[in-house]
Amino acid sequence: DQADPAHAPPMFVFVGSFIDANAPQLLVSAMRKVVDAVPDAKLIMIGDGPLRQACSDMAKALNLADAVDLQGRHILERVAKRLQGVLAYVRHNVTTKTGDAAVTPMSMLEAGACGLPVIATRHGGIPELVIDGKTGLLVDEYDIEAMAAKMIELANDRALAARLGATAREHIAANFSLEQSIDGLWGIVRKVMG
pTM of the full predicted structure? Predict the structure, then answer.
């Protein structure tokens, strides 16, 4: 099913585990600046983990209780449905002090596949998935100011959001389809088998 960022409210969604490498608290922090610029902006956070309570507490402390909606875990069908009514998918992956890094998130692939622009960090394999300025927008790790600025930019420019989302859909279909993955694996198998 296809998202429609051109006509979506200024609503952003994060789907993932509430762990250090996903840094969900940095999205909550960015939302303070986003709401100051776009008062009706909302952040839906789907998932669970050790940082969920901290994100809830932080949202309350920053007067964002109405703007940040922590929804807990969802079944896959419900996540797919949630992706349809939002403006963009957001994720602020970081390399932690212990060197932990996140893998390329499946939810980010799903978001792009349904036509949502993605705002994320230059982290791990994400730049292969999100081409800055073409399929989404990238910021540096821990740059909350830039994350907020990109969210505000899309909230104020729905044509850009729609363009990025459409290109994301094409990019995912062309480069990350099941057939593509199977062909790539067979290529590796053939090389190994000699």
Answer: 0.86
Give the pair of three-digit tokens for residue 76: 């896959």
| 42-46: strand order across its sheet | 68-72, 42-46, 11-15, 88-90, 118-121, 136-139
Pinpoint the alpha helices (H) of 114-157.
Answer: 126-129, 144-156
Q: Which token pair is 5?
A: 């960022």
Which phi and psi (to 5°) does residue 83 adopt?
-65, -25
For residue 176, what are its two tokens? 């990350």
Q: pLDDT tens-digit profile of 97-133?
A: 776 666 667 788 888 888 999 999 998 888 888 999 9
Strand pairing class (42-46; 88-90): unpaired
Q: Which residues make beta-bridge pairs with 119?
A: 90, 137
**Residues 6+ away with beta carbon under 8 Å from 77:** none
Nearest Cα to 15, choosing from 66, 64, 75, 79? 79
